Amino acid sequence: MTVRPAPEPTRRPAPARPHRVPRLRALDGLRLVAALMVAAYHYGGRDGDVTQAWGSSPKEQFPTLHTYFAYGPLGVHIFFVISGFVICMSGWGRPLRSFFASRASRLLPAYWVAVVLVTAVFALPVVAYKAVSPSDALLNLTLLQYPLGVDRVLGVCWTLWVEVRFYALFALCVVLPGVNRQRVILFCTVWTLAAAVAQSAQEPLLDVVVMPEYAPFFIGGIGLYLVHRDRRDAYAWGIVAVSFLVGQHYAVKNLWNATDPNAFAHRTSFGIVLVVALGFLAVAAIALGWLNWANWRWLTVAGALTYPFYLVHEHLGWVVIHTLHRDLGLPSAETFALTTGLMLLLAWLLHRWVEKPLTPRLRAVLAKAR
Known about the structure:
- There is one protein chain.
- The chain is mainly alpha-helical.
- Helix content is 71%, strand content 0%.
- It has 16 helices and no strands.
- The chain has helices spanning 25-44, 49-54, 58-61, 66-69, 74-91, 96-122, 134-140, 145-148, 157-175, 181-201, 204-210, 215-229, 234-255, 269-287, 297-327, 332-368.
- Helix 5 packs across helix 12 and helix 10 (181-201) packs parallel to helix 13 (234-255).
- The longest helix has 37 residues, at 332-368.
């Protein structure tokens, strides 16, 4: 009689560890490039309040460069493409509460401090610029000042209102039911069609909700994240192509000013399309892994400084320009460079002493709240 050995107990496989997505440091660098584009516009690519800081039009301070600085607003469009990519990436596999906590903790600490700081500086008697009223300054802390039509402490905060609406759309339509490829593609398709309908209907409420002029850039970024996940995804490439074609149309429509005799600088339609195309191509190169070689640690620092720099650079930059150029007599080029450097230093201080300690604490509180 043959005795068979007892079967070995079945071993359960160890649970798979969550996949850790390597940081795309080139994306951090592109963020800073976009922020510097916007800063160049605010310092030397437009008239308005910055003229008071320089003592004359930036056109006189930068006779040649002002025509290039005038393309700086397109840095915002590149920001929106990056935002679409990052929000889709960060929302994948994350519950709604965690997504909300992540976004709120990322935006609010540095924003609150920037609002208080700019309000305080503008209230100083030696500063020529007028501070907003105390009531309006308090309302600015809510991020609702733009839709409520009150004076803004930060000139760039209108873009945060655009971002918040994008977060809300993505959270309700994609994160809440659960992120997957099919749902993301459907979201991009429906949003693109809704934006086109809103444009033709000329209905203000639809414009507020679906943001026709900015939607293509967010949608293009989402499509590029799908490409990052699978470069052979034909639907993703289709989303990117349509988004670029629609996005460049809105960029040209809003920024092309060749027929305006009073324009600060005449942007060409070719130049606008070229900058938009380069923005899409840069994010596409990152999505495809072509820039993985740009893996320097300082790029992570650059990405961390971008948001606080973006918040404070405009209005506080005017004060610094006035001090350096008009009070101390520094030449325009040195003033421009030193102002940018000082705003980056201030951004580092905000990141080190505000964002680093407060962001994880606020995220933890919001993630646990019921």
